[in-house]
Amino acid sequence: MEKAKLEGALEAILFTMGESVEAEKLAKALEIDMKTLKSLIAGLEAQYRQENRGVRIVEFDGAYQMSTKPELYEYLIRVASQPRRQVLTDVLLETLSIVAYKQPVTKLEIEKVRGVKSDHAVNKLIEYELITEVGRLDAPGRPILFGTTEEFLRRFGLRSPEEMPKVEEDGMAQIREEVTEEVAAQMRDAQEAVQTEDIV
């Protein structure tokens, strides 16, 4: 099959699937080797850039997906009836960073780092499809192991978890310190509120 037809077939697959497709599956469907596949993808990406098109091809840990260019999101929002809005609070970002850097990790391990219960944060991150169950620890109770998802990579513009910035142990220590200060502040506020009620 000539290059133009292969590019068209590749574009059709990615457009129709909507989600990411593993490189091996693409190569098998097109009956080409991986080197040729990567050449085709590079060719399409170059066309999208030069022709100022509204889409691009992004890679997520060995899989490829057709995606809207970020700079054009505002036009999509204008026609979306109810665009989904997900707010990542400091607590969610702290929990997500622990999962991202220590995955696979159990909820108990997350709570040891944060120093507080993390059920709500973990459930929210699962709801937002940023983390997911990746297995179970071979230990009493078989606790669930969590890891990041493809949506996490997409949201933060990463191709794989290996592209995340390196963080020393001091970084995790800082997170623990910030969480401790946050909890202490909340306890002080609660205590002051009780004392005020007693006075009244």
Keywords:
200 residues; alpha+beta; Arc Repressor Mutant, subunit A; 2 domains; three-stranded antiparallel β-sheet; 9 helices
Tell me what you see in this structure:
- This protein has nine helices and six strands, in the order H-E-H-H-E-E-H-H-E-H-H-E-E-H-H.
- The strands form two sheets. A three-stranded antiparallel sheet has the order 1-3-2. A three-stranded antiparallel sheet has the order 4-6-5.
- By secondary structure, the protein is an alpha+beta fold.
- The mean pLDDT is 83.
- The protein has two domains: 74 residues, Arc Repressor Mutant, subunit A; 110 residues, Orthogonal Bundle (Arc Repressor Mutant, subunit A), CATH 1.10.10.
- The longest helix is centred in the C-terminal third of the chain and has 31 residues.
- The protein is elongated and about 70 Å long.
- A hairpin with a 7-residue loop joins strand 5 and strand 6.
- Helix 1 packs across helix 3.
